[in-house]
Amino acid sequence: MTRIKRGVAAHKKREKLLKYAKGFKWGRKSKERLAREALLHAWTNTYVSRKLLKRDTRRLWQTKIGAAAKENGINYARLMGMLHKKHIELDRKILAEIAESYPNVFVKIVEEAKR
Questions:
Q1: Which CATH number do you get for residue 39?
Q2: Residue 82 falls inside a structural domain
Q3: What is the pLDDT of residues 67-115, one digit of tens each?
Q4: What would the pLDDT profile of 32-47 be if each residue is shown by its tens digit?
Q5: How many domains, in total, are found in the chain?
Q6: What spatial distance separates the first Cα and last Cα of the chain, rounded to whole Å?
């Protein structure tokens, strides 16, 4: 069987690994073993952070909607319940944007839900 030299493939693998570790502090940006260890932790955290970002964004939308609803004399839970009953299908992202940027439109939505 012929001998296969892995020098080029191994070097490419190391370079790719170090490319991902660019911007890390100390030896973790330049030493293969430290970079691999740092990337294992970093990639774990990015997975978790993607989930947390979704959670935090939804909470922010709920806070914005709740604050705007309180100004109109209704709480968040009641408003969402009324919108659901009236089949006004605006999601929280859009409602939060309307509440923040177009308060007069939000007032009309609340009045329609109350009716």
A1: 1.10.1900.20
A2: yes
A3: 999 999 999 999 999 999 999 999 999 999 999 999 999 999 999 999 8
A4: 999 999 999 999 999 9
A5: 1
A6: 83
